[in-house]
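During the reporting period the student researcher (J.K.) took over the structure-prediction task from the postdoctoral fellow and processed the backlog of single-chain submissions. One of the processed entries is reproduced below for the supervisory committee.
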Amino acid sequence: MTEIPEHLLKRSRERRSALGLGGEESASEGATSTPSAAAPAVAASSAPAAASGPAGRGAAKAPAAPPPPKKVHPTVIAAQSRRKIPFWAMLALSLLPVWMFLYARSLTQTVEASEGPLGLGAEVYSNCASCHGGAGGGGVGYQFSGGEVLKSYPHIEDQIRYVYYGTGAYNIAGVTIPGNPDREGGAHVTGALGNMPQFGSSAGGALTDYQLLSVICHVRYTLGGADPTSEEWAEEFATWCSEDSEIYSGLQDGAFGLRDIENFVDGLIPIGMEPSPGTPPGAR
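J.K. obtained the following structure tokens:
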């Protein structure tokens, strides 16, 4: 049997003491064979092996790398970064349909409230717009806007008579200048821009007497620019073209016609009479 040197036994005891495997070994134990002496080495080598068990593997395993972030579509990023609509704006938008309804009602009520000759005359004027322009700027027929119609017809009765009978009646009577023969800028001559048809119902025209009056009021005060509040035009407007006009109400109710109105203003040729040869309509 081989004897183990004392210094090796001492080192073994110190090793076992450090590992907590017991106290001093006897000399007899030290005299064992080599496999017993190799026990500390086996025990020492078992510690790392234990660390490689299930618990050891979990503690020593490196943390898994986080998954790469998902790619977000640009439209989603834009939607997320867009400023949200504030609460007060949402409230205002919810009230928008109500505002639109009230606004439409206000426009409708304004149209409905536009009664009398001027309101009706704006509708009837569609029969004249093709020749005189939608805003009275002229075309095939003479210009009305910018006060031009007032230069031709300083008195509404002269214009009523001409529109009622048309160009033909004046030509037949031998009168070629309707209205004011001393017109600023030159007198207008019948037929110079073509013949205007008669519009009075009794003369074979398409308009009733109150429709004819209403369109002339529209031409003079809406398109021609006559100011119904001015001293020059206030009396004419109140008599013929206001909503309270007795003449307009009588024509509308059928109490009388335009041809029944004679010498309404002293010195004027009666509306019911065709102009006589050589006498300018409206001559005083």
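The committee noted the following: The chain is about 50% helix and 0% strand.
J.K. will present the remaining backlog at the next meeting.
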